[in-house]
Design brief:
The chain is mainly β and 1454 residues long. It contains 18 helices and 64 strands.
């Protein structure tokens, strides 16, 4: 055990930095004023103090006449003019001497602040230092000046540029004089030193954004300051271009706190003191009732501190009392969190955390982990009455009891693998949390009565015990790391809702520490989010150079005016919530008096977790060896070359990419040919599958707003010439497979191209496409083409496709293919050991690396015709204003037939449609009229003899039919019958004529407007409505489609006008609503014109999708050109907006023709769920801040919409400032149906454009529950039903070595037949697992049925236990023997199995022994490179794989 002492032995580096970084906080009124002024985001600034010129430096009577020993120093402090308050920390420059009445300082200061108010200034004082006889220095002020940082103009937040400041006589303390209160111009009150001025430069410094979490606000520092976490610069100025040190993941688990003399006595004494204090300060009730204070919750704050500030917001977890000696294991019952001194009860002796915490730190001596123990107390308030105590209101308050600090890098890492014991502190000592800490002195009598379990002073102190392990160690596979530690970590993970990791190991988002909001911690409070680990290594200082996940930022598909309101990303990460592990065991005494609350038990989800880019993965990037790269480049992949034939310039994915939007837009090669080359896939050994899995793969992804791409079937080719090494597997080159099944070896790899030029981009879209490349990552799914199972997912950064003026660029990426899985403890054994009956056990999510994908991206610049107008770069003139066209010509006369009307209005009905409508009344037009019987030319219905001619035509038709032998009852001609038919025709003509005239008049007042819209984006427009009459009119506005509506809210109208920069008038309270009216009404004066604001926004789309499986695209030369046609998931339509006058007749008509434009998909989720069941899912959005939207309440504007109206999609925020969850409830479908829909996340109040669009696939599978024992084969039957046609079917499992399907090969499934499948399950790890089985049509490569196997695997009954020691190093391992006796009277054949075949090998895997005789089993243990221990199970099975005996061998590697 590693023991640490108190804070007196802290690391000197941390204590020095901590004492020096203590600062004076700004005025709370100023902070509130800045928040009200929407200045919540901190900005970085640079202040350069170059030279001070003094024509006649002031002399002092107290100073010597000669100044040869004098040195000068500048001191700078932030000052609040409104409140006359110095805040922050005083910065002192190095001393300099005066030469020729000039002092050259040449110092550069950096700071970041959110108090960008005109009252915030910097006071700079000139101080002279003279030596004293005692070798100390005497400081004397020689003058000061005031530097204004910010102006009153909102468009210029900082006074950038060179400044020359005059020095004033006196000391800066004069600024605290009452006469200077509320005075901003000091020049009239302060006397200036003639000829003395200071030259300085103030400018913004955006590069500080990347390191603001390492430095608190309002602190002036120079570039050579010691800031732990920041890499040193060769120039000495580390803040000019900050480079952060690499952060390492650490896991903190098995945490317990021991309070002296015991937990019960410590809390009892604490409650006695608090209750006594309450009784002394408050009057008792009318009946003298005692108001007892109780403990409601015990919390622990854990944060990483660098001496300046917390790197992240400290994580807050809830501690539970644990039984003495039962560390890390829950007690059998749920304990109360209340503690009343009047009714003491035996309580456990320690506090413990049953989950693990994930921390991120840099390897620096000053880095520390700070703990703070805090109790939540509940006290009654209000007047006591005769009612029960449960009706009394209670107030909660917090109190810090102990704190401690641990330095993991102060000494060599002797704590690795050891238990760390930390002494907790109390009393009046400065601590990083800046709070008062409880302290009390125990009497000697109390101390002597405490029983000590062991001698030593450590037992008399409050201690905190935990284990700290590096994430790199946990990633290492057995036996290189301690396998015992791994198993212990898994057994203690995810047991408590207070864990800040839900499913993943997550850390808090970067923000300054804040006080808890209330007495209770909700799930969202206790589950913080993690930062995005870069999938491809990249480090840089500028926001657009960083690796971003799928962030909340506008979609490039929306029109440019809709996107201008957000300039950069606003959210750091998306974390996925899989389950709610909330336990309601901590309830107060008052709650128990009302009735016992039901405990909410952890439950097991039945689908695989979603892969999110923000997940904490074992490794974010990997680099192949030189031999692997040589093998890769020798495959002969096609080169990426520019249009002149030169090879494209190669970019390094590990280096930052500068992004200059102006340079990209000014590129002469305006066309872009974007190339994705899928080169190879490196297999990584995975438990449960063979070494050659997968054999065939295909990819699915979507780039920008092109249609989704499903590649063809690709073969993984393994080289037989190069020797394979297990530690360094060579990448398998991908090759396309033709329709006949042959492999196209002539052109290795798969190349997909996307052409983005003026013919593709919409007007003004070029800048958003460039922004898409700079900030987005492209999600790629990798599938097994044989089994149609998902291998994993990955993402690549698109910023390396920015050409930055080059003719062509390319970059080679090697990214990990990741998937996630659940790991659960053995529910039955765990419940039995705890004495409770649990229906389900909590689950732990683990990340699995399935392989590495080698992909090359490139961008080739293409020339365009200079005479053509570049639509992507040119923004259209304001098309948001719809002005009705002026009708300069009237009706030209002629026929009103439907043919002419059709030429004027495409929506008018044609004559053929009219005849079809009246077919029941004119039967002759429906019967056998041949083309040769139609009179040539157009029939003019308006001729005087038109009716007579029609009768003649009908008679001629009937005569012709009679000649041909066609007899019918209606052929008999009579004058009365013909007259009746003629009357019907005349009525139809009159109706057609009136409708034709109405259509002509409607066409004259109809204005056409073409609109390009995408899913979820709002298109804003204004229609100019004019009253043509000389009398006032009240116009009713009606739209025949609810997606197109009138903006009646003034604030919303103002928002869209500012967003689109539409310079038109705005009116308050313009519209009125009446009950029963078809739409809003607006009043117009005679001949008045007004602007009617309209918006179009649609959330519905088509959800049809292609069948699952690889496509059969033409290979050509190994290249595929993506289709230019875009996926029409949104249907085109025409919408009419009618403006009706008082008489109900239309005054104007606006016809909006909506053309769909596909949207950008930011992230793809794939969920697996049992069929015909509701899927309930929560996706967490962490707290964010958008630097361009300085609205402190912006976080409450998150809203979500779903493209499927049958899916419930909503979001709500429980506590302001806490993470927000997006909840989904999806109805189930039969297996193997896949439901696809879109979720749009909006961050603005009026939902102008979705900041993020998610594409979610839900795979519904048949659920099968299987219970089995490790090492033993269990059989399960499945039923496969045939469909309409004969199919050739083969079944695949996700883990072929653990699940075998019988029949194993391809079999014929007749129509409507029933085929029984036999599953043989044999697993080697206890706990809950989720595996998959697919039935695939081998001819069409389509999925027929899919099963979800929910496995509950239990530990076997052990027969014997052994222990063996194996030396560490490159030795040959160790050989041992075990004797096994056949218990049967007859001879039997047995099989030997092990759950760690990589560590243990048998001399013979199969042996035969006679009845009653013994057999010696030879064991060979492999050596290890690092110390540790592991438990290996040895199974003796019969020929049916039923376990006869189970041995356990504890192997110690030392």
């Amino acid at each position: 055990m590693v023991q640490t002492e108190d804070t007196s032995t802290m690391a000197d580096g941390w204590r020095e930095v901590f004492e020096r970084s203590r600062l004076v906080p700004p005025s709370s009124h100023t902070v509130r004023l800045a928040a009200e002024s929407h200045l919540a985001q901190s900005h970085g600034f640079q202040l350069s103090l170059s030279r001070l010129t003094a024509a006649q430096p002031p002399q002092s009577l107290e100073m010597p006449e000669t100044e040869q020993d004098l040195t000068y120093q500048l001191r700078a402090t932030l000052f609040d003019q409104n409140h006359q308050h110095f805040f922050g920390r005083t910065w002192k420059s190095p001393t300099q001497k005066m030469k020729n009445s000039k002092i050259s300082f040449n110092e550069v200061l950096y700071f970041h602040t959110s108090l960008r108010l005109p009252s915030t200034v910097v006071v700079v004082e000139l101080v002279s230092l003279s030596p004293r006889p005692d070798s100390s220095q005497q400081a004397l002020g020689r003058g000061f000046t005031v530097l204004e940082l910010f102006t009153n103009r909102p468009e210029a937040q900082a006074a950038d540029g060179n400044r020359r400041l005059n020095l004033h006589h006196g000391s800066p303390r004069i600024l605290l004089h009452p006469q200077l209160q509320d005075t901003t111009d000091y020049r009239s009150l302060l006397k200036t030193i003639d000829g003395t001025h200071l030259d300085c430069v103030v400018k913004k410094h955006p590069a500080l954004v990347s390191m603001m979490h390492l430095l608190p606000e309002n602190v002036l520092v120079s570039g050579d300051e010691n800031i732990p976490g920041l890499s040193a610069s060769p120039t000495g100025d580390a803040l000019l271009r900050p480079q952060l040190l690499k952060t390492l993941p650490f896991t903190l688990n098995r945490l317990t706190i021991s309070l002296q003399p015991s937990l019960e006595k410590f809390e009892s004494q604490l409650l006695q003191l608090i209750n006594a204090d309450c009784h002394n300060t408050k009057q008792p009730g009318p009946e003298g009732t005692q108001r007892a204070v109780v403990i409601q919750e015990r919390r622990l704050h854990v944060g990483v501190h660098n001496g300046w500030c917390f790197l992240d917001k400290p994580q807050v977890v809830v501690l539970e009392p644990l039984a003495s000696g039962g560390r890390g294991r829950a007690d059998s019952t749920s304990k109360q969190s209340t503690l009343d001194s009047s009714a003491p009860s035996p309580l456990p002796q320690i506090l413990g955390l049953r989950s693990s915490l994930e921390l991120k730190m840099t390897n620096h001596q000053a880095m520390s982990i700070v703990f703070q123990l805090e109790h939540v107390f509940s006290a009654p308030i209000g007047r006591e009455t005769m009612l029960s105590a449960t009706s009394t209101s209670r107030a909660a308050f917090l109190q810090c009891l102990r704190w401690g600090i641990f330095f993991p890098f102060q000494q060599p890492a002797d704590w690795r693998g050891e238990e760390i014991q930390l002494v907790l502190q109390g009393g009046a000592k400065s601590n990083p949390y800046g709070v008062m800490v409880y302290s009390t002195e125990m009497s000697a009598k109390t101390q002597s009565s405490v029983p000590l379990s062991a001698p030593g002073t450590a037992q008399l102190k409050d201690t905190l015990t935990f284990r700290l392990s590096s994430g790199l160690e946990r990633k290492a596979s057995s036996p290189k790391a301690s396998l015992r530690s791994k198993q212990e970590d898994v057994s203690h993970e995810r047991r408590l809702p207070s864990s800040p990791s839900q499913g993943q190991k997550l850390i808090a988002a970067a923000s300054p520490p804040e006080s808890p909001q209330g007495p209770k911690l909700s799930l969202s409070q206790l589950a913080a989010t993690s930062r995005y680990p870069t999938i491809s290594h990249s480090s840089s200082a500028l926001p657009w150079q960083q690796s971003f996940p799928s962030l909340l930022h506008p979609s490039p598909l929306a029109s440019a005016h809709q996107l201008s309101h957000v300039a950069c990303s606003a959210v750091s990460n998306i974390a996925h919530l899989e389950m709610d592990l909330q336990r309601e065991g901590d309830v107060s005494a008052s709650a128990h008096s009302e009735g016992d609350q039901l405990e909410e038990l952890p439950f097991t989800p039945v689908h695989a977790p979603v892969i999110t880019l923000g997940m904490n993965v074992p490794s974010s990037s990997s680099v192949s060896s030189r031999s692997s790269l040589a093998h890769l480049y020798s495959a002969g992949f096609p080169e990426i070359a520019d249009y002149s034939g030169q090879v494209a310039e190669v970019l390094d994915p590990t280096e930052p990419v500068p992004f200059d939007p102006q340079r990209e837009e000014a590129d002469l090669l305006q066309g872009n040919l974007l190339v994705f080359q899928f080169l190879a896939f490196t297999r990584i050994p995975t438990p449960g599958v063979g070494p050659d899995w997968p054999d065939n793969i295909h990819f699915t992804f979507q780039f920008y707003r092109f249609p989704p791409v499903t590649s063809q079937k690709l073969k993984l080719l393994k080289s037989d010439k190069v020797q394979q090494k297990r530690c360094d597997p060579l990448p398998c080159v991908v090759a396309s497979i033709n329709r006949d099944g042959t492999v196209n070896t002539g052109s290795p790899g798969l190349q997909v191209q996307f052409r983005v030029d003026d013919g593709f981009l919409r007007p003004g879209e070029k800048r958003w496409f460039l922004r898409y490349l700079a900030l987005h990552t492209m999600h790629i799914d990798i599938w097994d083409s044989d089994s149609l199972l998902l291998i994993g997912s990955t993402a690549i950064e698109l910023k390396y496709m920015l050409r930055q003026g080059k003719s062509a660029v390319q970059a080679l990426h090697e990214v990990e293919v990741l998937t996630t899985d659940y790991v659960g403890d053995d529910a039955l054994l765990m419940s039995a050991s705890q004495g409770q009956h649990s229906a389900s056990s909590p689950m732990t999510i683990r990340t699995i690396v399935r392989g590495r994908l080698h992909i090359r991206t490139g961008n080739i610049g293409c020339p365009v015709d200079p005479t053509r107008r570049r639509a992507g770069d040119v923004m259209l003139s304001p098309s948001h204003i719809i002005t009705p066209r002026q009708v300069t010509s009237g009706f030209r006369g002629g026929s009103l037939s439907s043919r002419n009307i059709l030429q004027l209005n495409a929506r008018n009905t044609a004559q053929a449609h009219r005849l079809e409508m009246d077919g029941d009344h004119v039967p002759l037009y429906r019967h056998r009229i041949r083309p040769d019987s139609v009179v040539p030319g157009e029939l003019n219905l308006n001729e005087p003899n038109g009716g007579r001619r029609k009768l003649d035509c009908m008679a001629a038709v009937r005569q012709r039919e009679a000649k041909e032998g066609v007899r019918a009852t209606n052929v008999t001609t009579s004058e009365a019958h013909l007259s009746a038919e003629l009357l019907q025709i005349q009525l139809s003509e009159e109706r057609s004529r009136s409708e034709g005239i109405a259509n002509m008049l409607g066409q004259a007042i109809t204005t056409q407007h073409l609109l390009y819209a995408s899913l979820g984006s709002t298109e804003y427009m204004e229609f100019v409505l004019k009253n043509p009459f000389n009398v006032p009119q009240t116009v009713t506005i009606h739209s025949d489609d609810p997606d197109l509506s009138v903006i009646t809210n003034t604030d919303e109208w103002r928002y869209f006008k500012a967003l689109t920069q539409t310079p038109t008038p705005l009116e308050e309270n313009m519209f009125q609503w009446e009950q029963g009216a078809p739409g809003p009404r607006v009043y117009l004066r005679p001949k008045e014109s007004i602007h009617i604001p309209l918006k179009y926004q649609s959330f519905l789309c088509d959800h049809t999708m292609a069948p699952q499986g690889p496509s059969f695209l033409p290979t050509g030369k190994g290249s595929q050109m993506a289709k230019k046609n875009q996926s029409n998931i949104v249907a085109a339509k025409t919408i009419k907006v009618t403006f009706q006058a008082d008489d109900g007749k239309p005054m104007a008509i606006c016809q909006v023709n909506v053309e769909p434009t596909p949207h950008v998909v930011n992230q793809t989720f794939r969920l697996y769920h049992p069929e015909l069941c509701f899927l309930k899912k929560a996706i967490r959005l962490p707290p964010w801040h958008d630097p361009t939207v300085e609205d402190p309440d912006a976080r409450s504007n998150i809203s979500v919409r779903c493209s499927d109206p049958n899916i419930i999609c909503q979001t709500r925020m429980l506590v302001p400032g806490e993470p927000q969850d997006v909840y989904l409830k999806v109805p189930g479908n039969p297996s193997p149906h896949i439901k696809m829909f879109f979720v749009m996340v909006f961050t603005d109040k009026w939902m102008a454009a979705p900041s993020q669009t998610w594409q979610i696939y839900v795979h519904f599978l048949e659920r099968v529950d299987v219970s089995c024992v490790t090492g033993q084969r269990t059989c399960q039957s499945l039923v496969l039903r045939g469909r309409q046609t004969v199919r050739k079917v083969k079944c695949f499992s996700s883990h072929p070595k653990e699940i075998q399907v019988d029949p194993e090969g391809v079999f014929v499934l007749p129509p409507s037949a029933v085929q029984e499948l036999q599953l043989k399950v044999q697993l080697w790890r206890a706990g809950s697992r989720f595996l998959y089985v697919n039935a695939v049509d081998m001819e069409n490569q389509r999925l027929i049925t899919a099963w979800l196997l929910c496995l509950n695997v239990h530990q076997p009954v052990l027969s014997k236990a052994f222990e063996v020691c194996v030396p560490v190093g490159g030795g040959r391992g160790s050989s041992k023997k075990i004797t096994y006796t056949n218990p049967y009277t007859s001879g039997r054949t047995f099989l030997l199995r092990s759950d760690h075949p990589d560590l243990l090998q048998f001399k013979e895997d199969k042996f035969q022994v006679s009845g009653g005789e013994s057999y010696t089993i030879g064991l060979r243990f492999a050596s290890s490179q690092s110390p540790g221990s592991v438990k290996i199970h040895v199974y003796v099975n019969n020929l049916e794989e039923k376990t006869e005996e189970t041995f356990v061998v504890n192997v110690n590697y030392s």
